[in-house]
Amino acid sequence: MPLPLGFTGARLDRADQMRTNEAAFAAAIADPRATCLTLDGIDFVPGASGGLLWEPLDPADDRALMLLGIDDAGAPRFVREAAAGARVDARTRTVMRLLPLLSAEEAALYGGARSLVDWHARHRFCAVCGTPTDLFRGGWGRRCGACGAEHFPRVDPVVIMLAEFEDRVLVGRQGGFPPGFFSALAGFVEPGESLEEAVARELFEEAGIHVSDVSYVASQPWPFPSSLMIGCRAVAKDPALTLDTTEIEAAMWVDRAEVRAALASDMGAPFLAPPSLAIARYLLEDWAGL
């Protein structure tokens, strides 16, 4: 990949050894170079130059600190848990309007912090016994004081794929997409299936096509709230479509010239392409040879 995919490429040492060493974690908090990412709920607050806003640790703020890692200069970077009662909306559109203000590395740093804060906001109680839990491991886990259960942040695997048939690929749209917008089809991996099986199942369920020769292309963390997008290709056995209209509003086969026109935002393109942060765009660019 010539450039990092959206939300990848953070140059930050995750410092796992500090997460498990209470003395090292305390020393990181006491480091005068330590900074904390400023968030509004889970949305970032733009700094003076439009990028992320990092501020010195505020001793008056009693919210728990979570260690994101150590930057190239050796300075610890933290984020705090969301305030009690803060609005944590994983589908907020506010952040989508602000993301173009960030560099690729800042977007990656923010994406990881956003997913972590969101997870803690949604997992304040033990899934085993229901008792409130406490942060531990530098903020990368929660522990139940009642039953001893330990809980750790998770990501949800999602397959996102282009089906091919005779030099064309399939793109589709959901009803909530902007007018004219089409993208690669996608779906969550279910328990008990491989990535290849998930690709085949989703394409059959949503578009009614049978595929073979599933291959991996690339992956991308997607912090809305915390998914791992696994980009794939597959070869369709027949182009006839039978859409599940509860999932897909419309779908169509497009050739390379049409994909290139959409990626170039040509007025005559048959659809609007996904934004640069999305792996769906990378899949289309890769397939189109761009």
Secondary structure layout:
Layout: H1 16-19, H2 22-30, E1 35-37, E2 39-40, E3 43-44, E4 54-56, E5 65-70, E6 76-80, H3 94-98, H4 104-122, E7 133-136, E8 141-144, E9 150-151, E10 156-164, E11 168-173, E12 185-188, H5 195-207, E13 211-222, E14 227-236, E15 250-255, H6 256-263, H7 279-288
What do you see in this structure?
- There is one protein chain.
- This protein is an alpha+beta fold.
- It folds into 2 domains: 16-122, no CATH class; 156-288, Nucleoside Triphosphate Pyrophosphohydrolase, CATH 3.90.79.10.
- The protein has helices spanning 16-19, 22-30, 94-98, 104-122, 195-207, 256-263, 279-288, and strands at 35-37, 39-40, 43-44, 54-56, 65-70, 76-80, 133-136, 141-144, 150-151, 156-164, 168-173, 185-188, 211-222, 227-236, 250-255.
- The chain has a 4-stranded mixed beta sheet, with helices on both faces. It has a 4-stranded mixed beta sheet with strand order 12-10-14-13, with helices on both faces.
- Strand 5 (65-70) and strand 6 (76-80) form a beta hairpin.
